[in-house]
Design a protein that fits this description.
6-stranded antiparallel sheet; Arc Repressor Mutant, subunit A; 4 domains; 5-stranded parallel sheet; alpha+beta; Elongation Factor Tu (Ef-tu), domain 3
Length: about 625
């Protein structure tokens, strides 16, 4: 029997990027929250590349910040190089990215966690998940749990689970019990994880750290479907042994731009990155050793990320390429360790040594940490509601790589949403579900729960059909009012946005009202060749407005026509979303519905017709049939 009991409202398991944002969000909403991690020294650790942001990902970080999250503030405080990507394209494609001081970033996240009220950080190894049942069919385990924790009927976001289990807490090593009405699992790559370097395999989800099997066993016992993915990491080098004269310099931006809307200005000494390339000799060496690569020897059968392939995959899939670009990225200000971005590998150690000696600038480089691949369990996310709550276990939420995603940013976004919804569910409030026209986070979550994943998911701007609306520069205008209303954003953030909006309104009014040669200044600025300096010459008082306000107004004016066309489609989707589908809706009753449509819609259980229309393989004819039956016009 357990020796100790601890009572909380929300428990978050795992303190990576998903877990920290989940715990912080739940605590900001007033829930008494416990953040459980196997090692308090690895809170917020960057397991792979020492960077935040990138194409699509940078937009997500800005949205996390607009919702009150920590990631943007942490990278602003610890970044060592800042770049705005895609600057040659339109503003909707601009994506911020920053190199981080790896240890400083981790320490900053831990500081934010430790200083958050309502949040307790605990070093614990979770070995089991406790549930309780409301119905008469509870098994012995559930009845035991009820005796411990007290049984109650639970309504989760308006859906009563009369006979399904609901989460009641977790058991940690040493047989202590943490009791809570909501649990968020953010276990990363640690579920039954196995690391591969050549033929050698080691249990563990990250170099130097072990694995856990208890949570996987508990989930399978509760009926949660688990599958396997793999990811990888490149070798890290001793920077003192690199010949930088044989590489290309990649500096940061002259005027670095912040991630957080709370950061006024970045005054930071930036460190350079460097670029080098693989060679024909490198590719030949890799091909000669493919039989020793776990992905090709049959040692690994699970699928890895298509958009971040290993160097073995690159050489095989892009056999016509004579070279591949590599980025040498510093891991911090107080370390000489360099991350080799672009050469993720699980090849044996001797092959990694040989390959590096053939790369310009790395001929004498010393490997400090060898690359490896990790296989791990994940729970396919089509088992989740749009709130990221399990469809099978009330009060159990999933976020991060356990949902089949890859990337710090995608994980943090899910964590924030899951943590917020865990707290909202306990307060009897409606869940926070962002639409695809509201945020990249909305696109991310909708893609996961509606379509599932068949490979590790990462965000790209191309995934967002309304990306003209979802620019990185306007994330606060889109999301902070909602965050303030829910209690996720504090007054400082709310007041800063009000000040910004007031300045934008004044500037917009001035441009609309001021006319020169029969046209308003706003009309002049809509022309493709118009420059801001031209209108400032016509009206010098415009020079007093902030760059931020000016850019917002310019982008709004230049995209106005395109945005109007997108709003037509947005309105169509809103009408479909207004047609809710009851959780108990029986698709089998629609005789004319194709068997594939019945199976997929019955498994996904979309909340409305808009979500149903996005399920893979569902046709407009299928939607029309469902609509007819929802309106009571179909034959029974």
């Amino acid at each position: 029997m357990p020796t100790s009991y601890y009572d909380f409202d929300v428990i978050v398991v795992g303190a990576g990027h998903a877990g920290t944002e989940a715990a912080l969000a739940a605590a900001r909403l007033g829930a008494k929250t416990a953040l459980l991690t196997t090692n308090c020294d690895t809170v917020g650790q960057m397991s792979c590349n020492p960077a935040i942001g990138g194409v699509g990902k940078g937009q997500i970080v800005r949205e996390i910040d607009a919702l009150g999250g920590a990631m943007g503030r942490a990278i602003d405080a610890t970044g060592i190089q800042f770049r705005m990507l895609n600057c040659r394209k339109g503003p909707a494609m601009h994506s911020p990215r920053a190199q981080a001081d790896k240890k400083a970033y981790q320490a900053e996240i831990k500081r934010i966690v430790e200083e958050q009220s309502n949040l307790s950080l605990r070093q614990e190894v979770v070995e089991d998940i406790l549930v309780e049942h409301d119905g008469n069919g509870a098994n012995d385990e559930a009845r035991m749990t009820n005796d411990r924790l007290g049984s109650s009927t639970h309504t989760s976001f308006g859906i009563r689970h009369s006979s399904w289990p609901r989460v009641a807490g977790v058991v940690v090593r040493g047989d202590a019990v943490y009791r809570a009405r909501a649990v968020v699992l953010t276990t990363g790559t640690f579920l039954q994880a196995l690391m591969h370097t050549g033929e050698a395999t080691t249990p563990g989800g990250r170099g130097g750290e072990g694995t856990t099997a208890g949570i996987s066993a508990a989930l399978q016992r509760l009926g949660v479907r688990l599958e396997r993915f793999k990811t990888g990491t490149p070798p890290r080098l001793n920077g003192r042994t690199i010949d930088y004269n044989r590489t290309e310099l990649q500096p940061g931006d002259d005027e670095p731009q912040s991630f957080s809307f709370l950061t006024d200005r970045l005054a930071v000494e930036q460190l350079p990155c460097f670029i080098t390339y693989t060679t024909k000799a490198v590719h030949a060496c890799i091909r000669a050793n493919l039989h020793r690569a776990p992905m090709y020897s049959g040692q690994i059968n699970s699928r890895g990320p298509r958009y971040c392939p290993s160097i073995e995959d690159k050489v095989v899939r892009f056999s016509d390429k004579e070279r591949h670009q590599l980025f040498l990225e510093p891991e911090g200000r107080r370390t000489g360790e360099m991350y080799v971005n672009g050469i993720s590998t699980s090849l044996p150690r001797d092959v990694q040594d040989a390959v590096l000696r053939m790369i310009p600038g790395l001929e004498r480089a010393e490997i400090m940490r060898y690359g490896y691949a990790v296989e791990y369990d994940y729970a396919p996310p089509d088992q989740l509601r749009p709130s990221l709550e399990s469809k099978r276990i009330a009060g159990l939420f999933f976020a991060g790589q356990i949902n089949g995603t890859t990337g710090y940013e995608e994980a943090a976004a899910q964590g924030l949403m899951a943590g917020a919804n865990a707290a909202l569910s306990l307060a009897g409030r409606q869940p926070l579900v962002l639409a695809r026209d509201q945020a990249y986070i909305g696109v991310l979550v909708d893609d996961l729960v509606t379509c599932g994943v068949d490979e590790p998911y990462r965000m790209f701007t191309s995934r967002a059909e309304y990306r003209l609306l979802l620019r990185q520069d306007n994330a606060d205008r889109r999301l902070t009012p909602l965050a303030w209303e829910l209690g996720l954003a504090d007054r400082q953030r709310h007041d800063r946005l009000r000040t910004k909006l007031a300045e934008i309104d004044r500037l917009t009014q001035l441009l609309d009202e001021t006319r020169r040669d029969g046209a308003s200044l706003a009309q002049r600025l809509r022309r493709p060749d118009a420059e801001w300096t031209d209108v400032v010459r016509l009206l010098p008082e415009l020079a007093a407005f902030s760059t931020e306000a000016v850019n917002q107004v310019l982008y709004d004016l230049r995209y106005a026509g395109y945005v109007a066309r997108q709003e037509v489609e947005v309105e169509r989707q809103r009408r479909l979303a207004a047609k809710r589908i009851p959780a108990s809706f029986d698709y089998a009753r629609i005789a004319q519905l194709r068997a594939e449509a019945r199976e997929k819609l019955g498994r996904i259980r979309p909340a409305d017709l808009a979500q149903a229309s996005r399920v893979s393989g569902i046709t407009p004819a299928d939607i029309a049939l469902v609509m007819v039956h929802l309106e009571g016009k179909g034959a029974n």
